[in-house]
Amino acid sequence: SNAPARAASAAAPPQADADGTPPPVYATRLPPPLTLHYEIGAGDAPRLATLQWTPGEDAYTLQLLEAGPAAAGRHSQGTLDAHGVAPERYTESRRGRELRAANFRRDAGVISFSGPAQQHALLPGAQDRLSWIVQLAGILGANPALATPGATLQMLVAGTRGDAEVWEFRAQGFDVVDQPDGHTTRALKLQREPRRLYDTQVQVWADPAQHWLPLRLRLTLRASGQAIDWRLRAAAPP
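^ that's the sequence the OP posted. Answer follows.
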């Protein structure tokens, strides 16, 4: 179909490379339904957060709920298609009130936003700032060769502030990760290198024993140097 190409002429086309090549699409083996409990924080006072992944026959919901006074939440919902997770709507909320949203409008071939007026071409395999975690796990689950050090994978990731960027992850090999309960686990480290000064650096330690979901995740805002760590405390069926 040439619908994405038509949409790209009307919307800003996010590009993987200087020549405009879109990111590849991958086979996926998505995780089963799971509830993951993380400590999330910067510094000495981590917050507890619950990531709940609920796939159905052909649709899914995914939510991250943080405990504490801010009671922040993120919610992604959509369908499951030939390329894996296919978001339709992604929202960020605080104290139960929706603040911002990104809409993946497959009928129009664009990603639009509740606030900013810009639109981006909706490319196959595109993800939001929460669903990429599950999509990454699904890609690694179906493509063992991508765990080889130096292997790369790419996906378009959209936030709620009018942003949509191709994230490229590079496999760094297996690391021993210390867990909050004192155990150690070997996990595959992947790194997303920012392309511009204000991009987010992303480091993921994906656990093959946990369907390649993150044992640890570290997001660093390069402009400020602030880093936010996620550390898995427990995982269980929902």
